């Protein structure tokens, strides 16, 4: 399946099924509960929930990192390690 489509082309049912299968492999909940027979709607809802949880986790980690950086000596070896990790 190619990346981009012209505005007039339509996606086929087989292509949708292939994309749903690929998506299913990416979701931890789908793998853990073997949602092999789950509907596309349920799978898409699970995907949205998973993305929202990743955003919350990212925000939490960002807040924790900011707080850590505020309490850390900016010239310390730890601060330098964190800065180098953030730049990669």
From TrEMBL:
User: Which domain of life does the protein's organism represent?
Assistant: Eukaryota
Q: Which UniProt keywords apply?
A: Growth regulation, Transcription, Transcription regulation
Q: Which SUPFAM superfamilies match?
A: HLH, helix-loop-helix DNA-binding domain
Keyword match Chloroplast: no
GO MF annotation list: protein dimerization activity
- What's a single GO BP term from this record? regulation of growth
What Pfam families does its record include? bHLH_ILI (PF23174)
Q: Where is the BHLH domain?
A: 1-54
Keyword Transcription found: yes
Protein family per UniProt: Belongs to the bHLH protein family.
Name of the protein in its database record: DNA binding protein
Q: Which organism is it from?
A: Zostera marina
Name the lineage.
Eukaryota, Viridiplantae, Streptophyta, Embryophyta, Tracheophyta
């Amino acid at each position: 399946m190619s990346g981009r489509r012209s505005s007039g082309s339509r996606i086929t049912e087989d292509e949708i099924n292939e994309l749903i299968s690929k998506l299913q492999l990416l979701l931890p909940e789908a793998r853990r509960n073997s949602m092999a027979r789950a509907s596309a709607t349920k799978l898409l809802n699970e995907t949205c929930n998973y993305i929202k949880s990743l955003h919350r986790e990212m925000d939490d980690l960002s807040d924790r990192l900011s707080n850590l950086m505020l309490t850390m000596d900016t010239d310390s070896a730890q601060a330098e390690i964190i800065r180098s990790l953030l730049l990669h």
